[in-house]
TrEMBL record:
InterPro entries: Cro/C1-type_HTH, Lambda_DNA-bd_dom_sf, MLTR_LBD. PROSITE patterns: HTH_CROC1. Transmembrane segments: none annotated. GO terms for molecular function: DNA binding. Residues 35-83 form the HTH cro/C1-type domain. This is Helix-turn-helix protein. It holds the Pfam family MLTR_LBD. Residues 87-107 are annotated as: Disordered.
Length: 298
């Protein structure tokens, strides 16, 4: 995808999400053939000419002033992440300074040791494309046995959309799925080549209609913190807190942790689950760690 087509897709998707009445526009005498704002309405709200905005949306504008960009961002009601994304599309890095993202992220030995030391706190480590790079015993018990998966399948997006058991594992599946795709969208920078991400998105778009629909929405999301309801057949549904720790000097790797409020029913269930996880033996852990190291070689 070129930067210009990415810009057009992004701006078109954002204006399609805005109800004209919500920005004070009167009912139109001309029938609307699509959702949201027309180009001329965005131009009027931003205080630029229709021709200028049309050329900007088509990627046919050179330098754009900060004042104009801010006016367009305000007209489209962009949030901070969307504003950052727009500016990366309008002013991409020069090709000679734009490094390609490595297809096989490497995990520092110290990071891998930290993940293991966090047990019994479930802690999977992910790469920028949501590939699962490292995990501990607790993560395997709470989520799934990543070590039993082929290396290419160890990806949260692939797992979430292609493993039907996740519809049960996550009672609020859509509330988990939509941000997952939006986070992949935010990681997708048309100005920075990433063939592995393009391949992942292309494959999921073909095999999952829901993924394709979420991708077309062009929502952006950055993992931070919140709550998720997770079902486990041993203890039932637990409401857990998740925190996302972005790892410095790792080219986009991030660590997710899961905890429960102190004294809550979920805390008791999580404690029981970790203590009952006897099926995940010491031998399983050794094999799992070997699988994590092998995933960097495959």
């Amino acid at each position: 995808m070129t930067t210009s087509s990415g810009l057009r897709e992004f701006l078109t998707s954002r204006r399609a999400q805005i109800d004209p009445e919500s920005v004070g526009l009167p009912p139109s005498a001309i029938p609307r053939w699509g959702r949201g704002l027309r180009r001329e309405e965005v131009a009027a709200l931003a205080g630029v000419s229709v021709d200028y905005y049309a050329r900007l949306e088509q990627g046919r504008i050179g330098n754009v002033s900060d004042q104009v960009l801010t006016a367009i961002e305000d007209a489209l009601r962009l949030d901070p992440l969307e504003r950052q994304h727009l500016r990366s599309l309008v002013s991409p890095q020069p090709a000679r300074t734009r490094p390609r993202r490595p297809e096989k992220p490497q995990v520092r030995a110290g990071m891998r040791a930290l993940v293991q030391a966090m047990d019994p706190l479930p802690a999977p480590l992910q790469g920028p494309r949501m590939e699962v790079l490292a995990w501990n015993r607790a993560a395997s018990i709470l989520l799934t046995d990543f070590g039993a998966m082929p290396a290419r399948d160890r990806n949260i997006a692939r797992w979430l959309f292609l493993d039907s058991s996740n519809r049960t594992r996550y009672p609020d599946w859509e509330e988990v799925a939509a941000p997952t795709v939006a986070a992949l969208r935010a990681a997708h920078n048309p100005g920075r080549p990433d063939e592995a991400l393009e391949k992942l998105v292309g494959g999921l778009s073909v095999t999952s209609e829901e993924f394709a629909r979420y991708w077309a929405d062009y929502r952006l999301f950055k993992h931070a913190h919140g709550t998720k309801r997770i079902f486990h057949p041993t203890v039932g549904v637990m409401t857990l807190n998740y925190e996302t720790l972005h790892i410095a000097d790792s080219d986009g790797q991030f660590l997710s942790t899961y905890t429960a409020d102190v004294g809550s029913p979920a805390a008791e269930k999580l404690s029981i689950l970790m203590s009952w996880g006897t099926s995940f033996t010491e031998e399983d852990q050794v094999e799992s760690e070997a699988g994590q190291r092998q995933s960097e070689v495959d």
